[in-house]
Specification:
The complex is a heterodimer of chains A (284) and B (324). With 284 residues, chain A is mainly α. Chain A has 14 helices and no strands. In chain A, helix 1 packs across helix 14 and helix 11 packs antiparallel against helix 14. The relative contact order of chain A is 0.13. Chain B is mainly alpha-helical. The C terminus of chain B is likely disordered. Classes of the chains: A mainly alpha (284), B mainly alpha (324). At the A-B interface, helix 1, helix 4, helix 5, helix 6 and helix 8 of A face helix 1, helix 2, helix 4, helix 5 and helix 6 of B.
Amino acid sequence: MIEDPRAKMVRYIIIYTVLTVGAIVMMVPLLWTVSTSLKTRDKITIRRLELIPDPVAWENYPYLFEARPILQYTRNTMVIVVASLFGAWAPCTLAGYAFARIPFPGRNIFFGILLATMMLPYVVRLIPLFLFFDEIGWTRTFGPLILPRVLGHNAFYIFLYRQFFRGIPEDIYDSARIDGCSEFGVWWRIFMPMSRPVLAAVSIFAFSFAWNDFLNPLIYLGSNKELWTLALGLNALQGFEGEDNSLNLIMVFSMLMIIPMLIVFYFGQKHLISGVTAQGSLKG
Amino acid sequence: MAQASIKAKQTQQDATWKVRLQEWWFRNRALIGFAFIFPWFAGFIIFDALPFIYNLYLSFTDYQIGTVGVPPWIGLENYVEIFTEDKFFGKSMYNTVYYLGFSVPLRLIFAFLIALILNLRVRGMELYRTLFYVPSVVPLVAATVIFAGFLNTRYGFLNQFLVLIGAMPVRWLSSPDAIKPSLILISLWGFGGQMIIFLAGLQSIPDDLYEAAAIDGGTGWHRLVYITVPLMTPTIFFNLLLGLIGGFQIFEQVFILIGTNGGPLQAGLVYMLHVYNKAFRDFEFGYSAALSVILFLIIFVLTLLLVYTSNRWVFYGDAQDDGT
């Protein structure tokens, strides 16, 4: 297609203008967060726009570690993250593999149930689960946050694995079986190594859902400060309008929650789409 | 000689043993299948099925904090009270639907339009993709406290910026008129997740369709209306459905921004907040269960309606292979 160079020029200018303005608008809240996290206490209550902090208060970062038990929050959050990753790897991949490759009676019915639970809103299970965990004395402990995760109670991950495993050619599976590999062997020696994209994608989800979870820690750990996660700690630091004098520390805390997420997504981004769309890497 | 033959016999025995084991495995594949899904299924019974049924049961009882033993059965009383006396039921439903009505379509439109632009083959697109996507990587709690500061009446960026350009500052989080628009604004900031799903969909549209359209003399507008949009309807449907289901359950943002009572005049009291208050502030678990059942029914009926009407506008023709 031949295009008039001037029309092309105008088109490019419009595209880049829209994108640049849009990107700036999207980034402003984050830039403001970084800037506020580096402001001194008397600078945050100035009622005038000041984007570049002067002086730059690097000491806010080490100070937050003194003022709040950040390391304890991090350790508590990591307990949930590790449980979540374990569940996403072992039980969920096995279930996804069974749904994709092992014929067993009622498989479609079970899969239907799995899909249905993806649509089941959490709110209709919230109260009975709370009462149940309260009954067995598990409130104020990690139990209610760990047990479902360790069991791989996540239909979404299983669904993603199943879709991906179905994309692995049948011949590979058949020849492995003929060569005498067990179901477990096929899963471990062949499917797992071929499934890096989907494993990466699910791991990112598992990490970020556990890292970001707020409602569950709030309900089960809210009254036990010892076990607070980063999300609960950040919420507690945040005061309502009128108590603005720790705005800089709130933003330091926010940065501490954001940076690990950025790192995880940076390293996982190339797998995220290929893992989720269940095609890509295996087709070629 | 004798030793060698014993060894040979040994390997033969090993082999038959191995073959037997393999045969056993193969005959019992179904068993292995069940074993593999067992952890999930146990979780389904403990964490989905039983709670769901018990929740339904609770909604017909008067289970409160002091209740010992079997909670008293009161039939439909909770539901009657919700529909006739509970002034927060209508209020919180209105707030939630107001929020949804703006945030879901706006987010879809933004995500789709930006994905369209980001799908163009021009230089520097990777950078722009990252910039648009990064906000949706920010944890919800962090995003919410950032906006609590960002929208702060005196020290927040937005009002200081408005003053700078000569506009009137707004009490974003403390005036009843501004709370819901603020929540919608915050939800728009996280449109990147949907945008990425749209981008993946756009990239799977085969180029030859566009080439054919170009040969037939189609303009860019034609390509958009007759190729891109119809082929994207399954993705639009997916994002719309998940957006609605998620939107009905908005909770964290409001809880963190304005607290459990929902701000001035309860302008920010969303439905989940009402459910939360009834259960964990007032300890009226039976009543709260009834509220949650109503929300479930609304989401359920809406999902059915959407799925049922989807064959009128969602294009499933030319179905893609399922990857096998």
